[in-house]
């Protein structure tokens, strides 16, 4: 059972439980037309993020890694009218595409796209938290820093989601010197050692291949 089957099953659940609308379709089309890489979350994963945000009644969301705003839109739709999502993107072209997609989605009032390297912007967000949910999906080598910042900018009960932590299984290859794999393993070590965070990891298969996510909760 391989990729074709994973994709077909993903499509089944997506059609049944996470159906697309015109805004999400237009977002994906605009991203493709602008030449953005096809590395956004899958629809089922976007729906998972939205459900997590709703389950904790998130009012403030931090996203690291915007791309064209696809995951941003899923997350921002979980927010109440007064809610706020800040999303960080290093690439100005990606950010422009995202802003236009977020505008079309009618979410500009609650979504703020900040352009720059996340590690430069995060220290400026102390007065804008605490963030109820953080979605980390940028340069994986910096994931340990991003988790530390999400903890710093969170509160007890905040949820932190880290995307793409399985990397086709490479996460268990101790000798792998891919910076993304190293960053992921360091993140796992940090989560194991940090008593203020409680976490687990889920392997995923689907239209986007074989990967996975970490879900953590700020304990204190
Ligand atoms: C996987 S994509 C994000 C996908 C998006 N979350 C989604 O699912 O729709 C990663 C994004 O992070 C951005 N990025 C990479 N390094 C970054 C950094 N240091 N600071 C902020 N953004 C960064 C990339 O330009 C890219 O747009
Ligand atoms: Mg991702």
From TrEMBL:
Single biological process term from Gene Ontology: methylation
Pfam families to which the protein is assigned, alphabetical: Methyltransf_3
Family matches, as InterPro entries: Cation-dep_OMT (IPR050362), SAM-dependent_MTases_sf (IPR029063), SAM_O-MeTrfase (IPR002935)
Transmembrane segments: none
GO MF term set: O-methyltransferase activity; S-adenosylmethionine-dependent methyltransferase activity
Keywords of the record: Methyltransferase, S-adenosyl-L-methionine, Transferase
UniProt-listed CDD domains: AdoMet_MTases
PANTHER family linked: CAFFEOYL-COA O-METHYLTRANSFERASE 3-RELATED, O-METHYLTRANSFERASE-RELATED
Protein name in the entry: Predicted O-methyltransferase
């Amino acid at each position: 059972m391989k990729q074709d089957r994973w994709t077909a099953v993903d499509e089944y659940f997506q059609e049944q439980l996470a159906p697309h609308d015109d805004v999400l379709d237009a977002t994906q089309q605009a991203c493709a037309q602008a030449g953005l890489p096809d590395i956004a979350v899958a629809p089922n994963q976007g729906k998972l993020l939205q459900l997590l945000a709703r389950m904790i009644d998130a009012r403030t969301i931090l996203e690291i890694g915007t791309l064209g705003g696809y995951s941003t839109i899923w997350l921002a739709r979980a927010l109440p009218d007064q809610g706020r999502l800040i999303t960080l993107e290093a690439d100005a072209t990606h950010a422009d595409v995202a802003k236009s997609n977020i505008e079309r989605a009618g979410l500009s009032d609650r979504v703020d796209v900040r352009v720059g390297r996340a590690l430069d912007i995060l220290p400026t967000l102390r007065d804008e938290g605490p963030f109820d949910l953080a979605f980390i999906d940028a340069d994986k080598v910096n994931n340990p820093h991003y988790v530390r910042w999400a903890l710093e900018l969170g509160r007890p009960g905040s949820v932190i989601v880290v995307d793409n932590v399985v990397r086709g299984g490479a996460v268990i290859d101790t000798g792998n010197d891919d910076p993304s794999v190293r960053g992921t393993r360091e993140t796992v070590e940090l989560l194991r050692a940090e008593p203020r965070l409680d976490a687990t990891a889920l392997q995923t298969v689907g239209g986007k291949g074989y990967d996975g996510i970490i879900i953590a909760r700020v304990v204190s």
